[in-house]
Design goal:
There is one protein chain. The chain is of the alpha+beta class and 377 residues long. The chain has one domain. It has eight helices and twelve strands. The chain is globular and about 75 Å long. The relative contact order is 0.18.
Length: 377
């Protein structure tokens, strides 16, 4: 009996050692894959400015009820992925145009910046009236340029180690644990699936965990999913407190003429507003911003011009864009199926708040109207 117990313990020890060895090998392999992917950024992604046709949508929920919707179409003059970021100019641009710099809803929680020379031209815009029950001055990203700050290929130092200023190549972040979870199919491509998480939580820095997908043949980073591991720190504003329990990002790239280009970005944040003393919750907010890239032109890109350029700030609001409402265009776009339709809960919540029908019946900003109201004009 004693010999049997010894054999079982020996087998268990061998199994643990084997699993540890496999895990260590997967970690080394994962880091090697990611580093090779970083080394090949200039090969796999555009090295010149692109013109991106986009569709943009943002929603705000208050206490799990949709209270605001904004949508826009247009084009972005998007500089190359290997263009060095001039941080000083980027900060200066935000200081000039960022009117909602102190807003808790949609603030720059993770110090994200974008290229000052990038431009967004809004072709069409529509938005619902706002139906907040609490007057807190809610704002979210307000346009496509704010979302592009989460492009980790264009701005790798936001997540990877920022030593690229010396040798032009970002390095795998030593503060994170990476592990190869296997190989799978993603949108018709064979990809490495690599999970990551911080080696330890540092309350003074943003800590993320998620999954990186690297295309096996090109070693291009083609998808990134992550959430912030916040400590639910309370941000105080007088007698009010704000918690930021969720920050979630999804980022995708698509193959376009032998180069991987930005395809989709979603950023979702949750903020809880409460009494700082009693911890009594006043309201909770979920903001979601999404950007779909429909077309890419790399041959002829000129500086965008016109009356509807959106300022390059993370908080520029679509409400600042004054354009006539083209109902036919929006109706055709919705029928085309190029982008996901607005979910039914959002539609019903907004219709209930406004006591109106939402199916493409937006009016000139900032109101939207019912069919009967439109017929009466």
């Amino acid at each position: 009996m004693k010999n049997l117990i010894k054999e079982i313990l020996l087998l268990a020890t061998v199994l643990v050692l084997s699993l540890n060895q496999i895990s260590a090998q997967n970690t080394l392999q994962a880091k090697e894959i990611i580093q090779n992917s970083l080394n090949k950024i200039s090969e796999n992604y555009p090295t010149q400015t692109q013109l991106l046709d986009f569709f943009y949508r943002e929603t705000i929920q208050e206490n799990n009820e949709y209270v605001q919707l904004s949508e826009a179409t247009g084009e972005i003059a998007y500089s190359a992925s290997n263009t060095p970021l001039h941080t000083g100019k980027a900060i200066q641009a935000y200081q000039v145009g960022d009117y909602y710099n102190t807003s808790f809803i949609g603030s720059r929680w993770h110090n994200t910046l974008t290229q000052p020379e990038d431009q967004a031209n809004i072709k069409e815009v529509r938005y619902s009236n706002a139906h907040f029950k609490h007057d807190i001055g809610q704002q979210i990203t307000g346009g496509p340029l704010g979302l592009t700050a989460y492009d980790k290929v264009k701005y790798p130092s936001f997540f990877f180690d920022a030593v690229h200023q010396k040798n032009k190549t970002p390095q795998t972040n030593k503060n994170y644990h990476f592990e190869l979870k296997g190989v799978e199919n993603l949108n018709g491509h064979t990809v490495y699936k690599i999970d990551f998480q911080p080696e330890k939580i540092d309350k003074n820095h943003a800590n993320f965990e998620g999954t990186i997908y690297v295309e096996k043949n090109s070693l291009a980073l083609v998808r990134l999913e992550y959430v912030a591991l916040t400590q639910n720190t309370q941000y105080l504003a007088g007698e009010e407190g704000f918690l930021h329990p969720r920050h979630q990002v999804t980022l995708e790239y698509a193959l376009n003429k032998a180069k991987w280009t930005l395809s989709f970005i979603r950023v979702q944040d949750e903020v809880v507003w409460q009494d700082a003393k009693t911890k009594t919750q006043i309201a909770s907010y979920i903001t979601t911003s999404e950007l779909w890239v429909q077309g890419v032109n790399t041959k002829e890109v000129s500086i965008l011009a016109g009356a509807h350029l959106l300022p390059n700030t993370l908080q520029s609001s679509l409400y600042d864009v004054q354009k006539s409402y083209g109902a036919a265009m929006w109706e055709d776009l919705e029928k085309s199926g190029k982008y996901p339709s607005l979910n039914e809960k959002a539609r019903k919540d907004l219709e209930k708040n406004a006591n109106m029908v939402l199916d493409t019946q937006f009016s000139l900003q900032p109101e939207f109207q019912s069919k009967s109201q439109k017929a009466a004009r």
